[in-house]
Amino acid sequence: MYNGRHKSPDLVTAWTPAQAPPAFEGRGVQTLAPIQGGKLTWTAADGGATGTLTASVLSTDEVERAFDRLAELKVASADYSMHLGEAWRAGLFRQLDNLLDVDEFDFTDDMPTVESFRTFLRLIIHNQVKRRPGLGATADGVIIASWTQDRDRLTVECLPNDTIRWVAVKYLGDGERISSASISKAAHLREFLAPFSPATWFG
Amino acid sequence: MNPVGHRYAKSPLTEATIEYRLQEPLSDKDLTLVHRRFKQLKHREEELTNLTFRIVKGEPQVASKELSHYKLTASDGSEIIQIGRTNLSLSVLAPYPGWEEFIGRSWELYSLWRRDVGIRRPLRRIGLRYINRFDIPDNPEEPTYPIGRYLNFKSVEPEILDDPVRLYEVTVHTGIRADKLGVNLSSVSVASPLIGHSSLTLDIDIFRDAVDVPQTEPEIKALLNLIRQRRSEIFEACITDATRALIS
């Protein structure tokens, strides 16, 4: 079974052996089954023996969707540009590029949504965040921002409409672990985190 | 009042556009050639078409279909180029890259455009448009747009209207006679992208149209520099010190 993701031209156009996934290199393609459920079934002739391989195929449509969403997120950031530093914004764009890298993104997941991204940007601006967080996303397209300082961790899910769900974990001088979790409005996170000394994460 | 070229720390510029417009429209063939050449930019493409419908026995039918223009968007959304039958335009979103870079880029595209459009087709209009947005913190004790505090370019309502202004829009079409420039100036209240803020736009559109439109490279550059100067003067005349404090 070939499980690699493979960029392709259009799924519904004719394929040639040259377009087969790397696992088929030098093996030849004998037959090609129709696409079902996003899967493409290949049959290979391998020194007389044949085997059926299945490849998850990344379609042109998926590449375009990823391109479009990446552009939408970057264009959305233009609305906030005057409140973000140039270097901060450039770094954020690199993170978005990685987040929606078509070779890495699992297209069975939803892409990060613009609504979630707007909450993220407001979180950053209204809490005067200077340190850029790590960025991730849930399977339903919610952006996750995380800051780590030694063992101290802050993880924030950016939901639509300026709502955030966050978890903070901090270790005190004597090694005692304290933690808190809540759902709140993005603009007030720094206030909620006051007992945790948010400058640890936000700078 | 700040001089031309002054850059505010929190530049309110959300979009800048430069447009070159021809006197006569391009043929299908020439537009296709221009489009093909601009493909080398590898931008995201959209083809916009004008459709005319007619209703026949209650059903809509396409009566005519004509290519309007191509819209090319950079992958990071940093520039949008539009190529039409009569025009080439370049728009950049915030953050504004600065005059030299913006005008330099527009000149690269203009040169590319001229390769297929040819050097003999005269320009009818050259224009620059700058859209600014000011994010004003809400004040619970002042539940209205404090327009007069932030803009000198504003409407004056009769005293009988004593309710707070909830939505605001003002536009004038005017010009600077000595420079043979047309000016469209407008300001609109818009939803702020920030929490607890209200926003006002200031849209400055300056152009020379039909009369004494320069055709050579040095003349065009001189006109663009003049427009830049006037745009800066208009901007500074429209805002107040309170606005400068917001964006500094």
Q: What is the secondary structure topology, with strand pairs?
A:
The complex is a heterodimer of chains A (203) and B (248).
Chain A: E1 5-7, E2 29-32, E3 39-46, E4 49-58, H1 60-78, H2 86-99, H3 114-126, E5 134-137, E6 143-149, E7 152-158, E8 163-171, E9 177-185, H4 189-192, H5 199-202
Parallel strand pairs in A: 1-4
Antiparallel strand pairs in A: 2-3, 3-4, 5-6, 6-7, 7-8, 8-9
Helix pairs in contact in A: 1-2, 1-3
Chain B: E1 13-22, H1 28-38, E2 44-56, E3 59-73, E4 79-84, E5 87-93, H2 99-117, E6 123-137, H3 147-150, E7 169-176, E8 181-191, E9 197-209, H4 217-238, H5 241-247
Task: Outline the structure in words.
The complex is a heterodimer of chains A (203) and B (248). Chain A contains five helices and nine strands. Chain A has 203 residues and is of the alpha+beta class. Chain A is globular, with a radius of gyration of 22 Å. In chain A, the strands form two sheets. Chain A has a five-stranded antiparallel β-sheet. A four-stranded mixed β-sheet of chain A has the order 1-4-3-2. Mean pLDDT of chain A is 80; it is low at 1-15. Chain B is an alpha+beta fold and 248 residues long. In chain B, strands 2-3-4-5-1-6-9-8-7 form a nine-stranded antiparallel β-sheet, with helices on one face. In chain B, strand 7 and strand 8 form a beta hairpin. In chain B, helix 1 (28-38) crosses helix 2 (99-117). Chain B starts with 12 loop residues before the first strand and ends with a helix. The A-B interface holds A 67-68, 70-71, 74-75, 78-83, 86, 89, 93, 118, 121-122, 125-126, 162, 185-187 and B 10-12, 14, 44, 73, 75-78, 93-95, 133, 135, 193-196, 247.
